[in-house]
Specification:
Shape: elongated
Number of strands: 10
Structural class: alpha/beta
Distance between the termini: 67 Å
Strand content: 15-25%
């Protein structure tokens, strides 16, 4: 009798597995996403993206870890993560193996653009500085070494025939210290790359009258020859107190890069999930407000993963 019961149980289980393979054959995929430092916008946005992926793609789990734009590209290359936040200009440098990268980042593929960042050059209105050329012999605060905005600051000086050696002093400090230097006159220009309006510039403008320095079209084209990831950006008038004029310049995108080793079908599903949840992501990071699936598909010079490319073509975004 016991033998008959065991046989029936075995047959029942075997039938269950055969007839319901989808319940057990769903492949489990563990992914790691690297974002930005705690306290920044990348980390909470990464958490929201990971949550959407886990809810909408069966079998997928995604962990989120802090990182940085350049570090994430290298982490992707060396298999330390599967998806990473980056700045488009830094990713293009990685693609070609340009400094600060020591080799070509061959495992990196474009997943999607997210939102724009703006290169901003701020001076006090009473400084007499009206163009990049006027910075010669002055003291500047272009941000900590190795940051995307700091590298761009060097390149902007370069296209004007200048370098840090032509400056009276270069302060490699953070946002709040840079503002303090401008306020007390120890620096003449505050240079950074971030979203608009930048809270640090608003802080400065609340205490001092400011001027934003523009970059003319011919110089923008020169920058784009250096790095195809740079895009023309205009800071609209009224963005900052007292700045009642548009300020043309350059910027880049916060974007997502993904491992070339991930299967096309999985990346297709990831891309589709991103596009579907854009309104939700805008609730987490205000800079995502108004972003459309077509915006996600903008070509910034990094090859798309075939899975992402398939989705964007399917919806007519490319």
């Amino acid at each position: 009798m016991k033998s008959q019961v065991k046989t029936c149980v075995f047959i029942g289980l075997l039938t269950f597995f055969v007839l319901t393979p989808s319940a057990f054959s769903q492949e489990k995929v563990d992914l790691k996403m690297m974002t930005g430092p705690m306290g920044g916008s990348w980390y909470p946005l990464g958490g929201a993206i990971a949550d959407a992926m886990q809810k909408e793609i069966p079998g997928v789990t995604m962990s989120v870890a802090p990182g940085g734009g350049m570090a994430n590209v290298e982490a992707l290359e060396f298999g330390k993560c599967d998806i990473g936040f980056s700045n488009s200009s830094s990713a293009v440098d990685g693609l070609y193996g340009r400094p600060p990268f020591k080799k070509k980042m061959e495992n990196m593929r474009q997943l999607a653009n997210l939102y724009p960042q703006y290169f901003q050059m701020v001076v006090r209105e009473d400084s007499g500085i009206k163009s990049v050329a006027d910075l010669k012999g002055k003291s500047i605060a272009p941000g900590p070494k190795g940051h995307t905005g700091e590298l761009l600051a060097q390149q902007v000086l370069e296209i004007y025939g200048l370098s840090y050696k032509d400056m009276a002093k270069v302060h490699h400090v953070g946002y709040s210290d840079s503002v303090a230097l401008i306020k007390d006159g120890h620096a003449h220009a505050y240079i950074l790359g971030t979203t608009i309006p930048a809270s640090s510039i608003l802080d400065l403008a609340a205490d001092r009258k400011i001027r934003l320095i523009s970059i003319p079209d011919d110089k923008i084209k020169a920058l784009q020859k250096i790095n195809a990831g740079y895009l023309k950006r205009i800071i609209p008038k009224g963005t900052y107190p007292g700045v009642d004029y548009d300020v043309p310049g350059v910027g880049y995108f916060t974007h997502l890069v993904i491992s070339a080793k991930l299967p096309d079908d999985l990346v297709y599903k990831i891309t589709k999930t991103l596009a579907k949840n854009l309104p939700r992501f805008a609730d987490v990071v205000k800079d995502m407000k108004g972003v459309t699936p077509k915006d996600l598909a903008l070509d910034i010079g990094v090859p798309f993963h075939p899975g992402a490319l398939k989705y964007f073509k399917e919806i007519g975004a490319l």
